[in-house]
Every structure is written in C-alpha cells, then in structure tokens.
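pinging the channel bc i need a second pair of eyes. not urgent but kinda urgent?? the chain im working w is below, pasted from the shared doc
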Amino acid sequence: MSIHPSAVIAPGAIVPASCTVGPFSTIGPEVVLGEGCTLISHVVLDGRTRIGARNLFYPFSSVGVAPQDLKYKGEPTETILGDDNTIRESVTVSRGTVGGGGVTRIGSHCLLMTCVHIGHDSQVGSHCILANAATLAGHVVIEDHVTLGAFCPVHQHCTVGAYAFVGGGTIVTQDVLPFSLTSARRENKAFGINKIGLERRGFSPDRLARLQKAFRLLLSSKRNTAQALEQLRALAGDDIALLVAFIERSQRGVIK
C-alpha cells in the first residue's frame, strides 16, 4: 500500500492495498474505499462514505463532509460514489441529511471540475460533467449524461434531465428538459436539442430527427405545454416517452 507518512487514516477505515494516499490526506473511520483509488494530496474523506473503484481525487477536495444545513445535528447520514470518477481541486461533496433521504450519491464515470459543490442529498447520475464552480444546492437531481457549464448554480429540488447541456453561467431555478440545450443569453431558455452532445453519445440521425420534431412541438408551435404534451404522446419512441414523463412529473415547472 502506498501511503505517505504525513497522511492520517483513522482506525476503522477500509483502504485496499491497491490505493494510493498522498501527503496530508485524511480518511475518516467510516470511509470505505474501493480498489485502485488515488488521493493525490491534501484530500479529506469523512463521514459514512462508500467509494467505488478507481476514483481519482485531486488536492483539497473534500468528500463526505458535514452538510451545510443548520438543521443537521450529526446524524449518521451517507455519501456514495460509484467507479471511475475524477474529482478535481477544491471540490466539496456534502453528505446527506435525515430530512432529505440521508444519502448524497454520485454515479460512475463523472468529471467534477475545480470548485464544484455537490450539496446534501443531491443525486448525480453517471457520465456527467460538471464544469468549474458549478454548484448544486441540496436535493438536486442530475440525471445521466448531463453537462453542466461553469458557474451554474442549481436551485434546491430542481432536476436536470438526461443528456441535457446547460450553458455556463445559467442560473437554474426550474427543471431542465432532457436532451435540451439550455442557456441564459438574456434569459433562461431551451434552444432545442443538444445535437452535438447527442451525436457524440451515438444517437442515430433518425433518433435525432424524432427529438427535433418533439422539441419543435414543445418550444416553437405556439401551443402551451398541455397542448404540446397531447401531440407528443402521439409520437413513437422511448426518447419521446422519457421527455413526456419528465414534464409530467416536474414539480417546479420546466425551462422552455
């Protein structure tokens, strides 16, 4: 096991021999690390935190720390990370709260860039990219394959739908449609589908065409949301069904 002499690993922590723990890193007594993780230096892992395999933590990142919630009184809540995530410098991930379900969760194959904050009880899917200083308030849901631009704050209880791209500096106070390209040039708007991102994810031309038709009905047809949904339900395809279900269950309304 490669553990720098200045690192502090509390009794009870589980650190496999395949892990590397760099200088001045600290690992709390209830942390469980998976195989092949690397803590470069000055990393803090705390609380009831379960981390999968091959995660890479850059200097000054803090994962599993107490939530920034004045109601939190030290209850035994959790943080869970999947596999193959990259956690860049000064990222903070707060553990859950009893009132929010008790777990903050990040999936696999995510990139959290410098100064990203994942607030308590947030749920981040897999294959997500959160750019520099993107900030999730508590109870946020980020679905799979989302790209969140730099300096994007996301309000409590908002959901960013699968495959969405949110432009840098966008203040998210309502749910972001799956597959959408959403940005704040003058005001928050969905500008259509995230075509380049979807092509990179292997979406076929036919699949893209169906989504473009759905978004034209939703955004450009002068129908209100209820009228557009009636038209969307008549269209075939799993992607359309996902889009319709997302809008129907939204509690905060969607950005159009």
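so The chain has two domains: 2-142, 198-249. and DSSP finds four helices and 26 strands in the chain. — does that match what u expected or am i reading it wrong
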